[in-house]
Design a protein that fits this description.
β25 and β26 form a beta hairpin. α3 runs antiparallel to α4. With 472 residues, the chain is an alpha/beta fold.
Length: 472
Amino acid sequence: MKVDFLIIGAGFTGATLAERLASAGKRVLVVDRRDHIGGNAYDEYDPHGVLVHRYGPHIFHTNSKKVWNYLSQFTEWRPYYHRVRAVVEGKEIPLPFSLASLRALFSPRLADKLEEKLIAHYGYGARVPILGLREAEDPDLRFLADYVYRNVFEGYTLKQCGLRPEELSPTVTARVPVLVSYDTRYFQDTYQAMPKEGYTALFRRMLAHSNIKVLLGADWREVEGEVRFDRLVFTGPIDEFFGYLHGPLPYRSLSFGMEFFGEPWVQEVGQVNYPNEHPYTRSTEFKHLTGQDYLPHTTLAYEYPRITTWTRLWPEPLSFLRRSSATEKFCAVIVTYNRKDLLRECLTAVLSQTRPPDHVLVVDNASTDGTPEMLKAEFPQVEVLRLPENQGGAGGFHEGMKRAYEMGFEWWWIMDDDAFPEKDALVLLSRYSSQAEDLVPLQRNVGGSLYGVGYWKGKYVSVWGNLGNSTR
């Protein structure tokens, strides 16, 4: 077989190039290792008739009239403004953070004051990067910046990327600015809509040209040796193209849990983000995107962050993960005996996690130093399992893990009362929950030395990174 262009990847880039080249009279072969066209924008009908995005929500938006007109050749559009909310202190607020978010969280008096200062300093309609807002000299604006940073940005980026916002490129954090306006749309582009029949139908029409042939489920390196071509266009991971010459790059990826609900709607908007709660980062209700409001039921996707490649642990090539129905829940199990001051510090650290455990269980080995009274007065949200006598650490953990198992928790975060986890310990540990049976965090001894070991694929490996307890 002889073609002018061999294009690797049937997503937006590959399909657009194929269509443009074919329209110019070139013969094109498009190859994709997956069993479908559309790349990560691929959508399909689930068993309940809901059009879902297999690889997470893709919302079309652009300021380019040229792009809009080009794609309009292959689809009709359904007008759609994407709206996102974030759960902050138990409230759903508009995202990006805006003046509307300000009023949803703060008292009218404080909101008035902060709004006045934001408009005076930046101007109405400004888009202020969170790291830029943190540099404001005004103490009230710094207060707001620190609040938004802690409650909206920090936990989310730790979940999603394992990094704090300041460790990312400024171009990444600038994608979700603080808006000095009451615009609650997630995007402000001129053209915002969804393909009326879905993305897959759009791609099918793009690739329907007589000069284009499509080969799915095939590895490009095998095809490369069988097909004669003048030019090759590669749209996949750049490290794969060069055969991982310098090792694989770390890719941010996701796994998905699709959940069916026998009711018309679950969310008020298409997407809800969870910066601080739950192991998943966001949930998407697809009917908002597709306009299938006639269906009496709905489907939501829950997104779980994953790092598909980490050269210091498991160097594997990028793989896009299909949906999973697993919903992970974590129970912290703490065993104590007559060390209420240490226990207080331990519980404070556990309850201050960016991703708090779903349940906290304290096993009291019959303490006589006022521990039960302290727990009742200061930590009423914690379950206390008081044993009739001191059964030692082993006995205490046996009873605690038994209780956690009976309550249905899949993961138990066990620790002594003198363990003080860093605030991002659990969210980082949870990143490896799908690859491990047991996880032991990196820890710091009294003398400052570090140690840590993890269990992965049947063997123990070192886990270097700020993953867990800082033990005194």
